[in-house]
Amino acid sequence: MSNLRSDWVEIGGLGRLAVVGVLLALGVIIILGFSITRSARGHLLDARAEMVIAVIDELPPFPPEGKDAPAQYVQFDIAVRVSVLGGETVRVKVWAPDGTLVYSDADELVGRRFELPAHAAAAFEGLTGRHVPDLTDPAHACDRAHGELIELNAPITVVDGVPR
Question: pTM above the 0.85 mark?
Fold first, then answer.
């Protein structure tokens, strides 16, 4: 400690000013690095969400009968697998207002009922949003292997015009 103190005295006023300036510059660089990264991530997520929503808008209508309308259900499933899944999109789920999954690319989820999250419920009002889901939620059991996910909730139209 005494060596550091003697070095500090030895470098003089200009040297101390330079050291303080370098430390301040490093602090500013670190702060800007985190804020720019966070901002860029937000912009990238917004752009990705817009792309996915544009694709969702082009999907064939989801049949209100779900699997009970096999031809329309298969047509919807093929469109999802070809147009939506892949890249950063690892799962697609269509919720009914009561929390039942009426469609998922993970067949084991179809027909299961979960507590409908508030952000998913907002899609029934025509709202779109994204958030980081809680992967301990049973509705995300088959998604845990993917690590942190960003969930996009967007309304889709069914044959009778009701949002899902």
Answer: no
